[in-house]
Write a structure and sequence with these properties.
The chain is α/β, with parallel strands linked by helices. The chain has one domain (3-248): 3-Layer(aba) Sandwich (Rossmann fold), CATH 3.40.50.150. The protein has eight helices and seven strands. It has helices spanning 18-40, 44-55, 72-78, 94-106, 148-157, 178-196, 202-211, 216-225; strands at 62-66, 86-91, 116-120, 133-139, 159-170, 228-236, 241-248. Strands 3-2-1-4-5-7-6 form a seven-stranded mixed β-sheet, with helices on both faces. A hairpin with a 4-residue loop joins β6 (228-236) and β7 (241-248). α2 crosses α3. The radius of gyration is 17 Å and the shape is globular.
Length: 250
C-alpha cells in the first residue's frame, strides 16, 4: 500500500486504523532495532529479560510471543525453554518478521535459537487452539491493538489454566521531574529521531500511543476481567516501563 493510499489517522492522538498500523511497522522495520536502542539507551534488553522471568517457563515449555516485532523477546524466551521447548512468535508485519527470521538465522547454533519459529498472525484472531501454550507474552505491542480487551482475551484463551500471560509495555509517568523529561523526550526528541530514520509520522504516533494507553492499574483490571488471576505489575525505569503478569484462571 502506497503512503498516499493509507487510511487517515483517527481523531484521537496515538490511534490508527489497523491497516495503517500494519503499514507503519512495515515501513519502519529497517530502523526499528537501531531506534529502540537509541531511545532506551539499550535497556530494552534488560526489560525483556525481566518479562522472561515473569513468564515462569523453563525446559520443555511451549510459549507464544505475540506482536513479536523483530523477535528479541521470542529469542530470549527460546533460550530458556530448551531442551524440548518451543517458542512460536507472531506478528502482522511481514517485514518485521523477515528481520526476526534473519536475526534467528544469524544466531544459529546459539542455545535455544533452534526452538523458535516466526509466523504471520493477527493478535486479535490468533490461529491457535485453546490451552495450547504454557505462557504468552507481548512486548511493546498491546498499545497497538485496535481492540485491547479482545487482544487480552485471545492471549488468555490460548494459554492453559495456570499458565502465565506477561505484558511488557511503556507507560506514562505522572510525577515530575520524570513526567517532564518523558514529555520532552517523547514529544520532541523521539519524532526527530524518527525523522532522521525516515519516518517522523510513525515516531509521532508511537509516543502518542503511550499517552492514550491505559495506566498500569487500569491495565491490571483489564487483565483480571480477561480471565487472569494473581495479576500484578512492576514499574521500572523510573515508572516509564510496566511489566504486568497474571495466571490463567482454572
Amino acid at each position: 500500500m502506497a503512503a498516499s493510499e493509507e487510511p487517515a489517522v483517527d481523531e484521537a492522538p496515538g490511534t490508527l486504523p489497523e491497516p495503517a498500523v500494519q503499514a507503519m511497522f512495515d515501513r519502519i522495520a529497517g530502523v526499528y532495532d537501531v531506534l529502540n536502542t537509541v531511545m532506551t539507551a539499550g535497556l530494552h534488553h534488560q526489560w525483556r529479560a525481566r518479562a522472561v522471568d515473569l513468564a515462569r517457563v523453563g525446559p520443555g515449555s511451549r510459549v507464544l510471543d505475540v506482536a513479536t516485532g523483530t523477535g528479541d523477546l521470542a529469542l530470549a524466551l527460546a533460550a530458556v525453554v530448551q531442551p524440548g521447548g518451543e517458542v512460536i512468535a507472531t506478528d502482522f508485519s511481514e517485514k518485521m518478521l523477515s528481520i526476526a527470521r534473519d536475526k534467528a538465522s544469524q544466531r544459529a547454533g546459539m542455545p535455544g535459537v533452534s526452538g523458535v519459529s516466526f509466523e504471520f498472525a493477527n493478535a486479535l484472531e490468533l490461529p491457535f487452539a485453546n490451552d495450547a501454550f504454557d505462557a504468552a507474552t507481548v512486548g511493546f505491542g498491546v498499545r497497538n491493538f485496535s481492540d485491547l480487551e479482545r487482544g487480552l482475551s485471545e492471549l488468555v484463551r490460548v494459554v492453559r489454566p495456570g499458565g502465565r500471560v506477561v505484558v511488557l509495555e511503556m507507560t506514562n509517568p505522572t510525577r515530575p521531574p520524570l513526567s517532564t523529561f518523558f514529555s520532552l523526550w517523547f514529544d520532541r526528541v523521539v519524532p526527530l529521531l524518527g525523522k532522521a530514520g525516515g519516518d517522523a509520522e510513525a515516531y509521532t504516533y508511537l509516543p502518542n500511543s503511550v499517552k492514550r494507553f491505559p495506566g498500569p492499574e487500569r491495565l491490571a483490571e483489564m487483565m483480571w476481567s480477561a480471565g487472569l488471576r494473581e495479576v500484578h505489575y512492576v514499574l521500572t525505569a523510573g515508572g516509564i516501563i510496566a511489566l504486568h503478569a497474571g495466571s490463567v484462571a482454572a
